[in-house]
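Worked Example 4.2. Consider the chain below.
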Amino acid sequence: MLKTEDLWATIIGLLALLGVWMAWQAGSPLAQMVALNTAGLHWQTWGTLLAFFDHQWDAILLQPIVFSLFLALPVIFLNLDLERFLMGFLVLFLLGLVTFSISGWAQSARFELEPPVVALLLSLAIGNLVTIPDWMKPALRVELYLKTGIVLLGATFPLSLLLSAGPAALMQAAIGTILTVGAIYGLGRGLGLTHGQAAVLGTGAGVCGVSAAMAAGSAVEARRQDIYQAISLVILFSLAWVMVLPQLAVLFGLTPGQGGAWIGTSELADAAGMAAASSFGAMVGHANVVIKAFTLTKVIGRDVWIGLWAIFWTFTTTQHRTPGATPSSPDSTNAHAWWRRVPKFVIGFLLAAGVMSLLTLRLTPALRHDLLVPLVGLRTWAFTLCFLAIGLNTRFRQLFAVERRVVLVFSAGVAFNLAVGYVLSTIVFGSQWAALH
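Applying the procedure from the previous section yields the following structure tokens:
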């Protein structure tokens, strides 16, 4: 378990929470310095931006040092080259500063250039125009940054909201994932896809993107090319939905809660969903509500189905052996395998929410806000690093090398999921999401 990014993301997130709490208790500005970014600067001239960097030079020098200290231990346990990781991470950090500077421009809101969108566009352009050197690749740890950000998100998430809105989110996610996975699997089998192909495509679209596709691929003993095709389609549609879903949510006149829930039920990946939710939140002016609804439906609702579907496919695969597939491990059906596939970062999210709710139980709103500001800043950094790593890892020419029949099945399933998510978010549970604040 110590060789999984999932567990280390949980550990890093909880350690960051503890560090912020200790700094706040001691009255130290260290947490604010480490979490600093220029996204909210609203600068209009280069002089204003340069003056900010000149004034905050000590914090900017401190940030990569602290981030590297937190990441060094996971890097060692993950058997990555520490020196190459630190070199690559420094470049990634500098790209993060560029991202925040662009999104902090006074006119960025006019063009909807939120940090996630800027990070994706900037890194996609670099990744497809420039050859990424090998020494930088160890630092492009998408899952580590993403899941750390989600754990930090839990620290800013009220536990009372989980208890009040959680049941509706779980029910919506269950309905959505069962219908979508079932529809894609049925259509795929009807069009001649193998059991493994249909299962991987359905789970990738209906649950949690790349992680779900890989977990399902292992469970059904899918061929490597089947998993790669599913991952390519997940990435392609996830990136497209970052731009499309916020616009559609505005066009359909959805409330912040309904829009966030729809994005959470429809987006294929956590990182892309967070970017889409942030973009929609900026459009409607209620980013916190959108993020809450998205988190409830996607992170709390859909992500927990990774382990459930993996176990389901494991038990059904014995009747559908794929020629040339690698047999599953001997313990693939026992409790240890199930625990291995359970997303630990979701547990970390719940732990962070519970711990922070207890720590802030007797605090005034103003004091609670002061404590949470650095955690929000660190969360923003984690997600920005994740989006930068996604773009630098993505090659468009590889995404389009997918079998047409597979594209047809996946596209139809994604469209179906979009419709199901809309009905669930606006009609079935529409009143609950509209009342979210």
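Residues 322-333 have pLDDT under 50 and may be disordered. The first helix runs from residue 5 to 26. Compare this with Example 4.1 before moving on.
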